[in-house]
Amino acid sequence: MHLDWQVKHYRDLSLNEFHDIVALRMRVFVVEQDCAYLDLDGKDKKCYHLLCRDGKGNVVATARILPPGLSYSDSAIGRVVIEDEIRGNGIGHKLMEVAMKFALQEFGNSPIVISAQKHLQKYYGQHDFVSTGKEYLEDGIPHVEMRFEVKK
Fold first, then answer.
1. Per-residue pLDDT of the chain (152 residues; tens, 9 = 90+)
2. 84: exposed, middle or buried (Cβ count in 10 Å: 0-12, 13-18, 19+)
3. CATH code, domain with 117
4. How many CB atoms lie within 10 A of CB 32?
5. pTM for this structure?
6. What's the number of domains the chain is made of?
7. Domain encompassing residue 58
């Protein structure tokens, strides 16, 4: 499957691109995971967005990359989501690699924070994210704060 990866700041997204990002997030987080939450929290406007398109131009995976100071003192990666039909093919790992590489280039070699669903802790651990020990319920789902430190 041919995939096209692109990172754009919110101000550079077309209306259709932002629509497709939000539609994918809603399909997975709200419908599939049965989690009613306010997705449009105002942070998207200050973030970069990773878009992954299939060969037909459909957005099949996305993540938002938050600048330092928006949610945490360090940069962060959030709203990581992959279309159900293509999970399990390593696309999630590629998504994290692209998002992390961009964050490190854009914001310097500084730590990256994520708020991970607890059941995905091992997955994020494969990308050298380590639990900070802070665990909490977010929208009724167990989460853990994790941090990536640049190796010196």
1. 789 999 999 999 999 999 999 999 999 988 888 877 778 899 999 999 999 999 999 999 999 999 999 999 999 999 999 999 989 888 999 999 999 999 999 999 899 999 999 999 999 999 999 999 999 998 888 999 999 998 87
2. exposed
3. 3.40.630.30
4. 11
5. 0.93
6. 1
7. 4-148
